[in-house]
Amino acid sequence: MFTTTVYLGADIPDAGEVNAAMFSDFLKNTVQELLTGFTLTDGYGCWNGNYEKVRILTVISKELLDEVLTIAEEYKKQFRQECVLVNVLENHAFSLV
Asked: What is the chain written as a DSSP string?
């Protein structure tokens, strides 16, 4: 099992930030089209000395998902991000209770 976490920064260079309506459309038209389950968390982060809102998408799956990388690439392109961090951890123990 793997836990994949994608950090989606909200700042758009020279164009404000990804607002709730824009992100909702991205969720509906990209994320939910590719994934059947995920967790979304709001946060605040720092990249290159600049603080910004961040949305953290977490997916737990049996294998590494190409769909998650597709989501990261689409977010990067759609919202003109310099990069999107994708962190993959292998779970050594896992149970559903």
From this structure: -EEEEEEEE-B-TTS-B--HHHHHHHIIIIIHHH-S--EEEEEEEEETTEEEEEEEEEEEESS--HHHHHHHHHHHHHTT-S--EEEEEE-SS----
| C-alpha 23 chain-centroid distance | 11
pLDDT digits (tens, 9 = 90+) for 21-73: 999 999 999 999 999 999 999 999 998 899 999 999 999 988 878 999 999 99
* Placement of tokens 């260079």 in the chain: 13
CA 80 to chain centre: 14
| Tens-digit pLDDT profile for residues 62-79 | 887 899 999 999 999 999
Tell me the whole-structure pTM to 2 decimals: 0.89
Find tokens 């946060």 and name the residue: 43
Beta bridge partners of 5: 58, 87
Tokens of 80: 């003109």
